[in-house]
Amino acid sequence: MSDFIQTQRIDLAAAFRWAVRLNYHEGVANHFSVAINNSGSQFLINPNQRHFATIKASDLLLLDANNQDTMSQANAPDPTAWGLHGAVHKHCPHARCVLHVHSIFSTVLACLKDPRLPAIDQNTAQFHNRVVVDAGFDGMAFVDEGERCAAMLSDPNKKVMLMGNHGVIVLGSSVADAFNRLFYFERSAETYIRALQTGMALNFLSNEVAEKTAQQWEGFDGSANAHFNELKSILDKEEADYKR
Asked: Which CATH number fits domain 2-243: 3.40.225.10, 3.30.70.1290, 3.40.50.300, 3.10.180.10?
């Protein structure tokens, strides 16, 4: 078990470092977490007020979503981290890894009157009918808002929630799975936003082709791990302290 937890620490630390490289970070805000027990209630998460670029494996907090005294502890997490990630890990056992960011293009998409991501290319088709759109933003993600968001993530087949007027939450079966999905969702949002900026008519894929392509994406077993392993190999050469 200790080896498993250490592996999760290293993977999550790598995700923070790559979020910086890809410009998904925002000051000392936003949070990534990963469950380490079967029910998902115990999870690792970044410490309060730490820049993603500095986070190491040993820095991560180990919390229990069922511990009502968490916020009174000396090393308490950010209240919004506890509100959102605590609720998701408590109520959504399928959400092994939870990544929440205000990355630029996903947030731009979340601010549109119609924030749905249409299938206009191979990447956007990956998310066809697989995104929860939250139109009920009610302020920062303290406990009540976290509970509301968690209730919208009960369908294990929908692993992205576009948080209207806010940002995005991406779920995964592992850190690699979630980070790979975040990468492609942000890239897809960028493609769509840039296509809109041309002012020209868009060529939407049919529902049939979009669904076919989404299922083909789901058949690429091992691609997320291969992607993430390559990212870690780069860090091993250039920022090896993330493992400490």
From this structure: 3.40.225.10
pLDDT of amino acid 1: 65
- Token readout for 31 is 């949070």
Looking at residue 58, the DSSP 8-state letter turns out to be G
Q: What's the rounded Cα separation, in Å, for the pair 146 and 88?
A: 7
Put simply, whether the predicted model's pTM sits higher than 0.90 gets the answer yes
Question: pLDDT tens-digit profile of 160-211?
Answer: 999 999 999 999 999 999 999 999 999 999 999 999 999 999 999 999 999 9
Residue 20 neighbours by CB under 8 Å, 6+ apart: 51, 52, 53
Q: In which order are the strands placed within the sheet that holds 160-163?
A: 61-64, 42-45, 31-35, 97-101, 167-172, 160-163, 131-134
Task: Assess contact for 55 and 114: CB atoms under 8 A.
Answer: no
Report the residue count for the chain. Answer: 244
